[in-house]
Amino acid sequence: MQARGLVKRYGRITAVDHVDLTVSRGDVYGYLGPNGAGKTTSLRMLLGLIGPDGGSAQLFGRDPLVEGVRALDGVAGFVEAPRFYPYLSGRRNLELVAALDGDGAAGRIDAALDTVDLADRARDKVGGYSHGMRQRLGIAGALLRDPRLLLLDEPATGLDPAGMRDMRRLVHRLAAQGMTVLLSSHLMAEVEELCNRVAIVSDGRVRYEGSLHELLETTAGRYELRTTDDARASEIAGGLAGLSAVAPAPTGSGIAFSAAEQVVPVLSLALAEAGIGISALVPRTATLEELFFRMTEGGEARPAEIAAPDETAAADAGDTSTSPAEHAQVRT
Amino acid sequence: MSAATAPAARRVTGSRGGPGVGTVYRWELRKLRAQKRTYLGLGAAAAVPLIFITALLTGSGGPDDVPFGRYVRETGLAIPLVGLLFSSVWLFPLITSLVAGDIVSSEDNHGTLKTILTRSTERWQIFAGKLLAALSYAFVALAVFVLVGLGVGGLIWGFDPLTTLSGTQVSAGRGSVLIGAATLAYFLPMVGIAGIAILLSTVTRNSAAAIVGTLIASFVMQLLGVINALEWLRPYLLSMQFDAWQGLLREPADWAPIVRAAWVSALYAVPAIGWAFVSFVRRDVAGG
């Protein structure tokens, strides 16, 4: 699935501003952003529900704008909460959408109901379903299409903790079966657990797109240090080759610095020689949540800050065959 | 973005015997069967002739000043015809718009447009299925109205020969055929009403607005029809076409009003449905 330069304007507001997304086969792709960032609008454009003002999308090489619903062959999912006819039963709703699918979808109803654990409530009217049951029915509806690409828009939103856990397990299981999943979410734990690639958007723009692992790596190499004499330790650290960005720690006590892992022991020995005791030396890898806030609330300048240590860290690690710049493109 | 970028070969691989308008139509009817409003309209279509008959049984007077009004106690065949005369003002515009004015906007209300538009059925097929379902409903309601009036009226006053508007008598059998033909003619302006209702349903995305809007449009046409200064406008009013069927109950039959009803109704229905169609196919589904 590819989106290139998607634009959608509503009056003077640009809801989606030149969004590029690339989801490859087998990815579990996290699409992150605060409410109103344009995630849902982008997904609607991918599903052909709304027409973009610019750019194009391709699903398995087909453009929904050009080919209509045929571009959705092998694609299923929902945007925002899945919606059904409240006056029909869950099964009847699935029969309806299966009829609109054709192509053997009706034969998958029982299996789909079993997968989402709704078989025993399938005869009840959807009007009486809980929010979680409707979400699950939405996934069952998507599974009827036997999709290769599943688009899920915040599937766990509004679920209780057990419901969220079950939803995560379900997505995990589907991905393990080889399904490509595009998961829009603002639940960082969910994304960290499930996704291998992410795009982070805010104000309609993509702030980061690439591997989740590499995104988290971008903050590797940042340490916090507390000693018996922070002022002298700061001087010593400042004088060592390979250490940079020495500053007071953001937590208030101690100092923070950036360094490659092999330089850290050099610092600890230097401190010991100077008679300074180390009370704490902690690597400070940011969580996805911290990165998310930095990118979505920090405005334009912040992503570059994150990008900078990325090159050092990954180059030092020396474990990537491709350069991180190719994978982790930070757009400002 | 452009069609030229999509190789023709790719299109061939997508062709298959998928669902079509018939599938949508069948499911729209099933959805109608599951909704209360459906039975409200059908119930009204059955109740109104029964109320009329009850009024005739309990009183001695009759609607003498309207066509067939003098014969309501002579033959059951006159009952549905008099009923049709009275029902063009409110009843059938209401019953028609009850479903036609809701058939698209109910998807907006339930947020289900996205549910059905992300399957393998094209938008035009969804729209066509909905249009056919709305028209079918209007016709079924009309048929219920006529059959209840004819059946119950016939049981009470007998299936006796009917006096036509030309003063001649026709047998009950031929009279029934004429009533059937009159029903078909009566359906023509209902198609026009349904077209307006579907347009409002599609454009306003609000069932109440579409139903009330259709009734207002129908009522305004009734009003324009009674203004003497606007007599030239009368033949082009949809409301006037509800009387066209009377041409069939003359001997020989007068086809001119039927032909006029057909093209005047089309004058309303075709642009309204066309507009609704284009709007439905091109719209952004941003809600739900």
First and last CA, distance of chain B:
26 Å
Strand content of chain A: 15-25%
Determine the strand fraction of chain B and express it as a percent band. Answer: under 5%
The largest sheet of chain B has its strands arranged as 1-2
Q: Determine the N-to-C terminus distance of chain A.
A: 23 Å
Q: Residue share in helices of chain A?
A: 25-40%
CATH architecture of the largest domain in chain A: 3-Layer(aba) Sandwich
- In quaternary terms, these chains amount to heterodimer
**Low-pLDDT runs of chain B:** 1-16
3D architecture notes:
The complex is a heterodimer of chains A (332) and B (288). Chain A has 332 residues and is an alpha/beta fold. Chain A folds into 3 domains: 2-210, Rossmann fold, CATH 3.40.50.300; 222-283, 2-Layer Sandwich (Alpha-Beta Plaits), CATH 3.30.70; 287-330, no CATH class. Helix content of chain A is 37%, strand content 25%. Chain A contains 13 helices and 14 strands. Chain A has helices at 39-46, 64-67, 90-101, 109-115, 131-143, 161-176, 188-194, 212-217, 230-239, 264-273, 288-297, 302-317, 324-327; strands at residues 2-10, 13-22, 28-32, 54-58, 75-78, 149-153, 180-185, 197-202, 205-211, 222-227, 243-248, 255-259, 278-283, 329-330. In chain A, strand 8 (197-202) and strand 9 form a beta hairpin. Chain A is elongated and about 80 Å long. The two termini of chain A are 23 Å apart. The model of chain A is unreliable at 299-332 (pLDDT under 50). Chain B is mainly alpha-helical. Chain B has one domain (19-282). Chain B has a two-stranded antiparallel ribbon. In chain B, helix 8 runs antiparallel to helix 11 (256-282). At the A-B interface, helix 2, strand 5 and helix 3 of A face helix 2 and helix 7 of B.
